[in-house]
């Protein structure tokens, strides 16, 4: 058997690449290296802007030329770094050499030693990961989540008045509306989306063990914590002044737990919509040319929701693993986080793929209101709650002497199907006021939805 040509091992880089490609801009190896170059370049500019070590601020044209190394980062730089890393066996060192090479080509050799000045690799990585994760989360993942929320909210508004039988514990229960049930998901997801939007993205920039020791040795008169803070904040990040060699990753743990929380809610949405399709409440809109089953031509399988469900489970497991691993570092530094963080993009990728499936799936369903109404009409016994509650109120008001209204309705309805005529006849026998009796006789399962239409 001949060997296959090189193929992507991960489906995210294979069949699902179109859905997750925007993440590659940030969370790929190339995206990480571009951010590393950005940090190294901006640190040189920050040092020279302060005229440290008798330097002068760079002319604007030199700054633009130097920044082009990351602003125009492309295949040439990717290949250069790969070749250099094969020799250095150190990814951040390869980045340092790339920046030095650019300085030389620009005639800026005099400030070459400012490259990576006072830095440990984790100073660069800390900021690079914060930049890439922030951009991926806020510019790619969060808009995709909000698009799903908007679609759920639009369906909730469209079906605001669509009465529906509830199923608590899988059993017929007090009616609701499809709109209100979808609005619950939209509300839950908005809350987590807002938490993600408000996330901190922290970085450290304090040297080998977080003490600025080398900095102070080189220039004891400089307020290095202030310089570091201003530099980190200039990148749009938060500053963590108290660290070991690494930034403690707690902000990452918090973010991944929030994204995993969102994934749990989305998983709940996917399984509920799948169940509504199974019940016939939603029909799926046929897509021209698509095949539902390889052998049963009539079928339209709810694959969007099933794929979303599976990918959310994978994403959730990876995010949980990231959170568990990143919260711990042995003493001042170990390398477990290095390997772990290389899978951030995989976790985001499966989550983004799920969002894509949900967004598509929610756009390919249509509410079968006749099915909802038929289900309601077949379960008049759910009005037992309304009847016994009204009777209780009448007893308190002195208009009824019925004892234990709950037991009375339990005997009538539990484990039995009761039709409209049966309930009407029963209500007529009740010792309650005329107004209460009239309200109950006018009530149907389809109108017993309380304030469902007013809750959102």
Describe this structure in words.
The chain has three domains: 16-119, Fumarase/aspartase (N-terminal domain) (Fumarase C, Chain B, domain 1); 122-208 and 233-286 and 297-368, Up-down Bundle (Fumarase C, Chain A, domain 2), CATH 1.20.200; 379-454, Orthogonal Bundle (Ribonucleotide Reductase Protein R1, domain 1). The protein starts with 16 loop residues before the first helix and ends in a 14-residue tail after the last helix. Helix 2 runs antiparallel to helix 3 and helix 6 (121-158) runs antiparallel to helix 7 (178-197). The protein has helices spanning 17-27, 29-49, 60-71, 75-88, 91-105, 121-158, 178-197, 213-218, 224-234, 250-279, 303-326, 336-341, 344-362, 369-377, 384-396, 405-413, 420-428, 434-442; strands spanning 163-168, 171-177, 202-203, 238-239, 282-284, 365-367. Strands 1-2 form a two-stranded antiparallel ribbon. The protein contains 18 helices and six strands. With 456 residues, it is mainly α.
Compact summary:
This protein has helices at 17-27, 29-49, 60-71, 75-88, 91-105, 121-158, 178-197, 213-218, 224-234, 250-279, 303-326, 336-341, 344-362, 369-377, 384-396, 405-413, 420-428, 434-442; strands at 163-168, 171-177, 202-203, 238-239, 282-284, 365-367. The chain is mainly α and 456 residues long.
Number of helices: 18
Instruction: Give the full name of the CATH homologous superfamily of the largest domain.
Output: Fumarase/aspartase (Central domain)
Give the number of DSSP strands.
6
CATH topology of the largest domain: Fumarase C, Chain A, domain 2
Organism: Microbacterium limosum
GO molecular function: N6-(1,2-dicarboxyethyl)AMP AMP-lyase (fumarate-forming) activity
GO biological process, one term: IMP biosynthetic process
Pfam families: ASL_C, Lyase_1
